[in-house]
């Protein structure tokens, strides 16, 4: 009982603090409303829905840390921004030969766009987080795999590693090079939706422009967390032998979209996949070591047998 009480108290205090922060922050209203709603559910139901609280908590922490990069990014502007490194690797490993010289796949794709790819790539790129959460929720609550409780914690670990690399080794995305060139980095460059604007124009909406105009980091191209996250989902799908075709297709489309929309180089995705593989292996190892009993499931309490007396006091001798 004390353990459950402690978990409930800590969760509610943290949830109230989280909601208070959202109220005082200046993030997008819809974003704050969504996160605040999830946090409110965790606060209200954590004593009954322990598994849900453990499932949702790392997601709330991740979004909070992502938003705080607005404060942390200016603090590391003294770090040299790598503008040409990823592009040089891309040209060396995946360069496309053209009459105008070698081009990166991202550069080549900007000259070969189609409305179908604009719509498909834009949609999967916008919904990459929703798709991952839906898959994780299915494995945890639909398929009732207790060990799947660790998936959202693995996602948090992936993003924390990625955010740290973004801050300590900032790298320019391909759209930045297209707009500003390969000269000294323009640290004050505003975020852009890049190829995502084609999706907005195609549908007459402003989803990409609204979302990316408030991006917390411009120079966070390497690693690609879009690619790393969907690859992580595919790894769990293979382990659970569930939804393999869905997750493989999801991963492949996001990988294509990251390059087609001019947001990432292929090497950005490869690094994201490598980190995802490391996080996955570590998560599997930890789950095996700790066992399902540490994953948030409370053991069932057996009712006393009818007619049975109270249990003997500690130290009492057995009558048998």
How would you concisely characterize the structure shown here?
By secondary structure, the chain is mainly α. The chain is built from 14 helices and no strands. It folds into 2 domains: 1-78; 80-294, no CATH class.
- Assembly type of the chains comes to single chain
Mean pLDDT, all residues: 81
| Helix amount | 55-70%
Q: What shape does the CA trace take?
A: globular
Could you give the order of the helices and strands?
A: HHHHHHHHHHHHHH
**Tally of separate helices:** 14
CA distance, first residue to last residue: 31 Å
- Give a count of the beta strands, DSSP E runs of length 2 or more: 0
Notes on the structure:
The protein has 2 domains: 1-78; 80-294, no CATH class. The protein has 14 helices and no strands. It has helices spanning 2-24, 29-45, 50-75, 85-94, 105-110, 115-126, 128-142, 151-168, 174-180, 196-203, 207-213, 225-240, 244-260, 266-290. The longest helix is centred in the first third of the chain and has 26 residues, at 50-75. The chain is globular.
Q: What keyword list fits this structure?
A:
single chain; 320 residues; mainly alpha; 0% strand
Layout of SSEs?
Layout: H1 2-24, H2 29-45, H3 50-75, H4 85-94, H5 105-110, H6 115-126, H7 128-142, H8 151-168, H9 174-180, H10 196-203, H11 207-213, H12 225-240, H13 244-260, H14 266-290
């Amino acid at each position: 009982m004390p353990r459950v009480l402690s978990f409930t108290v800590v969760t509610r205090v943290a949830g109230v603090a989280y909601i208070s922060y959202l109220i005082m922050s200046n993030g997008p209203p819809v974003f704050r409303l969504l996160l605040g709603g999830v946090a409110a559910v965790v606060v209200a139901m954590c004593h009954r829905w322990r598994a849900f609280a453990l499932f949702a908590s790392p997601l709330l922490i991740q979004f909070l840390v992502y938003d705080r990069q607005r404060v942390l990014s200016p603090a590391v502007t003294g770090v040299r921004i790598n503008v040409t490194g990823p592009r040089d690797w891309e040209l060396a490993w995946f360069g496309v030969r053209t009459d105008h010289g070698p081009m990166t796949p991202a550069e080549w794709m900007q000259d070969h766009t189609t409305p179908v790819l604009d719509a498909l790539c834009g949609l999967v790129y916008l919904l990459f987080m929703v798709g991952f959460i839906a898959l994780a929720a299915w494995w945890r609550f639909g398929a009732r795999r207790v060990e799947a409780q660790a998936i959202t914690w693995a996602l948090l670990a992936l993003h924390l590693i990625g955010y740290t690399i973004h801050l300590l080794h900032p790298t320019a995305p391909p759209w930045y090079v297209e707009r500003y060139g390969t000269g000294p980095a323009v640290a004050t460059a505003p975020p852009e939706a890049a190829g995502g604007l084609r999706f907005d124009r195609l549908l007459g909406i402003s989803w990409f422009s609204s979302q990316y105009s408030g991006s917390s980091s411009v120079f966070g191209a390497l690693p690609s967390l879009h690619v790393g996250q969907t690859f992580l989902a595919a790894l769990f799908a293979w382990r659970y032998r569930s939804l393999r075709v869905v997750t493989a297709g999801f991963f492949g489309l996001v990988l294509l979209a990251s390059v087609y929309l001019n947001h990432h180089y292929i090497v950005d995705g490869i690094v994201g996949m490598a980190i995802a593989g490391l996080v996955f292996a570590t998560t599997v190892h930890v789950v095996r070591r700790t066992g399902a009993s540490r994953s948030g499931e409370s053991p069932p309490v057996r009712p006393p047998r009818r007619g049975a007396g109270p249990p003997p006091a500690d130290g009492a001798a057995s009558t048998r």
